[in-house]
Amino acid sequence: MLGSTHGTFTTDLRARVVACGESPRTAVHGVTAAPGDQDVSGRPLHALVPDLDRFFRPESVAVIGASDTEGRPNTGITRQLLAWAERVGARLVPVHPTRTSVFGIDCVPTVGALAEPVDLAVLLVADPLPVIEELAEAKVRFAVAFASGFAETGEAGAEAQERLAEAVRRSGLRLLGPNTNLNAFERFREDLDGPAVALITQSGHQGRPVFTLQELGVRLSHWAPTGNEADLETADFISYFAGRPEVGAIACYVEGLKDGRSFLLAADRAARQGVPVVAVKVGRTETGARTAASHTGKLTGADRVVDAAMRQFGVIRVDGLDQLQDTATLLARARRPLADGVVVYSISGGTGAHFADLATAAGLELPTLPQAKQDELHQWIPEYLSVSNPVDNGGHPVGDWRGRKIIDAILADPSVGVLICPITGPFPPMSDKLAQDLADAAEATDKLVCVIWGSPVGTEDAYRSTLLGSSRLATFRTFGNCIGAVKAYLDHHRFTAGYRSPFDEAPRTPSPSFRKAQALMRPGRRLSEHAAKQLLRAYGIRVPREQLVTSAAAAVRAAGLVGYPVVMKASGAQLAHKTELGLVKVGLTSASQVRDAYRELTDIARFESIDLDGVLVCQMVGRGVEMVVGVTRDDLFGPTVTVGLGGVLVEVLNDTAVRVPPFDEHEARSMLAELRGRALLDGVRGAPPADVDALVEVVLRVQRMALELDGDLAELDINPLMVLPRGQGAVALDALAVCR
Looking at the Swiss-Prot or TrEMBL record, what is one Pfam family this protein matches (predicted)? Predict the structure, then answer.
């Protein structure tokens, strides 16, 4: 694998480690690093995981600005913190300069007057900055800042937030906020068991639907309201929750990512642990991105890049809060699938057919049940009804002893991993008996049983008591949410079963190619085509035979050496699109044509006031499939690699796939599978299959270039990359490179 780490590392955590003179693997102020080394750029390969035990379960809490004066906002917050501290067994110490007690508890005037170490300080002050140094001197481990007026308000607020973040970095404590809320200190139900959902939100209100899942019997273990993330961020909480034994799934509402690389490291940690991460990420549209930025002051990132990065590291992206609830719940509570096959079972043929269409379109596998299994089902279901999958029982068998027999027989088939029963509306006693049989069957099997209760009312006893009362059934209200959650469930377990972290195979030292390429870079400048192709050669990417000439006579000599027919192109750092200016001549077959072409190219350049470093005389390359492979930099994730249909099609069709390094050969091939024009590589209308292996090799070499030249290369565009017939390789016919 040609992988490595990339992008911008979370410098605040690493700076804290370096400042303390310790290795990134050691614990510093409650931050521990997972085992790992550094890549070629000196960046850690694994996430630093904050030890948040004392944040969520402190032994002592100081409330700065505590109050018991009725009608004041701080009073309500202090009261809630008192109740929370009692629930978690923490001692609470009010801090106020003019009060002797708050709610009957002795008060201290300043942080410096605290008589004992404090795990958590809650700052009920308008400006938390002056308090940070005091907390550091008192060796407080964690702090929460509720104050607003920071990055969410604009440039001045962003500057104030950076001053706060810098003070926190110097202090060694960890800060939640600013612009956060009390969600971390909510009352969680303790009478629920089983794997829990841990919740992370940047907007407290958007977490309410997930939090209220407790009323439906779903256990929640934590809520981290990250706010503006001046210090602690979504990635920190993902890393921490992924290591908690009670957490079955992590649900996130993300408006913006503070650092794309730290997010990937956290997602990698969750994937290693097999803990699913389900996320709503705002910013799919320009309006959504703009609104999110105004709320939290984060970069939302190019959405296609965010999408690709999440898929690469197994983060399940959903669009709605209802999908977040349903998908996270299913993934937290369902056991590992025993098979990928899905069977749809209903009391209505129309319902089964409708659901099967939707499920198949979404990519779920609905296997045809074996004939022996169909014969078995026809013992209880009339012969004229289809039981191949979907299974239609006609209605009547669910009302008696046959109903459970049918369900058990379906679940006994080894190809079946999931049974889904859509009940489109209550029709007692039929629907009530069916619901009870499904609940009983779910308790007796290791396979996933799902029910869609389609009634818009939702007050029926079969729904409220029977279905929701079962911790083994997965109950949904809509077809779409059920299909999406089941697809995510099967995909997640396939992903984690074969997961190999790309960070584990990252190179530790620069390659010889890197040293050659670095000498070619020109900071802040665009390279000519000739220089850009030298860059490709340094990384072993094939280019045509060519010579750079500065006279007509030299052009003729070069054509003889390259071999007719030839292509001639003007070469200069200013030239990004030569064809539009008539600066490319193709299929030249004689010395006279070469001389005339040289004069014409240089005349056009002179007329257009374009400085040339010469004219390229290039080998004519045989026909193949024109592709584009490139590198761009994303504000969040650093270098990204793109592959797609090239030539003029890249602008007409925009048929491309993107990935965030590091990735392996399997991921490179997955990129090609995403292309709408993928069939062109297989050969169409008599064309031979293209050399896909050579194309994949180019993608991986470009990735290596992007990673090693991260500090030097701003953009790379190989277009077209001519992918020749199978076994003949791929040739970069043109290239553009921009240095940082």
Answer: CoA_binding_2
Among 441, 443, 432, 452, which Cα is nearest to 472's? 443
Cα distance between residue 202 and residue 409, in whole Å: 46
Q: Which two tokens stand for residue 548?
A: 């750079």
Q: Quick count: other Cβ atoms within 10 Å of Cβ 478?
A: 15
Burial class (CB in 10 A: 0-12, 13-18, 19+), 603: exposed
SS (H, E, C) 209-269: HHHHHHHHCCCEEEEEECCCCCCCCHHHHHHHHHCCCCEEEEEEEECCECCHHHHHHHHHH
The Cα–Cα gap between 429 and 261 comes to 55
| Residue 573 DSSP symbol | T
Query: What confidence tens digit (pLDDT) does each residue in 238-260 have?
Result: 999 999 999 999 999 999 899 99
Q: Are 367 and 392 in contact (CB under 8 A)?
A: no
* 3 state DSSP class of 307: helix
- Spatial contact of 279 and 254, defined as CB atoms under 8 Å apart: yes
**Cα angle, residue 109 at apex, residues 108 and 112 outer, rounded to 5°:** 85
Mean pLDDT to the nearest integer, 118-145: 95
The pLDDT, as a whole number, for residue 50 is 86
pLDDT digits (tens, 9 = 90+) for 152-187: 999 999 999 999 999 999 999 999 999 999 999 999
**HSE-CB for 565 with a 13 A CA cutoff:** 10
Joined together, the tokens standing for residue 549 give 């000439």
Q: Is the pLDDT of residue 229 over 60?
A: yes
Nearest to 373 by CA among 422, 411, 418: 411
Find the angle CA(172)-CA(173)-CA(174) to the nearest 5 degrees.
120
- Measured CA to CA, the distance from residue 611 to residue 618 in angstroms comes to 20
Asked if residue 672 lies in contact with residue 507, where contact means CB atoms within 8 angstroms, the answer is no
